[in-house]
Write a structure and sequence with these properties.
single chain, alpha/beta, 3-stranded mixed β-sheet, two-stranded parallel ribbon, 5 strands
Length: 224
Amino acid sequence: MSDIDRPRLVLYVALGAVICFLGARYLAQQARGAGPAAAPAVAGVRAAPPAGTGGRPEPAPAPAPAATVSIGRADGGRVTVHVAGAVRRPGVYRLSAGARVNDALRRAGGPRRGADLDAVNLAARLEDGRQILVPLRAPASAAGAPAPPGSGAAATASAPAAPVNLNTATLEQLDTLDGVGPGIAQRILDYRALHGGFGRVEELGEVPGIGAKRLATLTPLVTV
């Protein structure tokens, strides 16, 4: 062999050594990968059936679903209140939670004439089971000036207001009279419509529900 071919021979020998090393490494990796290993479990099937089952695999139990907790109001988010007093339709009403007293008054038809809304907190939040009582405004005579010198307290207390005309009064005006509620006030209006008006105050005694005692109380408070 000539000297000019010696470097090439060295190169061939080096390449052959590298190829042999890489081949041996590859074969070693394949031998390790082909060794005994646990059989992969198939999803939903047990790896090995227990004895006595005939060799049939049993399906693995499905995972339990996550528990869902639902939180809500047992009353459906509503409150029940009793609206009474000087309103057009007193009664028990159900409103949505968070409603205000003013909302309850609207459900009851609104206040009647003479209602003292300053005595009620219209902005208060409703509470379940609460009663909303709307009072009547005190008559102007009840808050009058002190009695002049020489007059007794009894005389001041008995000073009558302007008499209510039975032939022109509204239901609200009649309702403000002592001893007259919405029911009796409506009967007075019905009697007036049926008989064409009152000819004298004593005819009040013919209205159902007005007896002699109540008539005596109303006589100084009304006129015709």
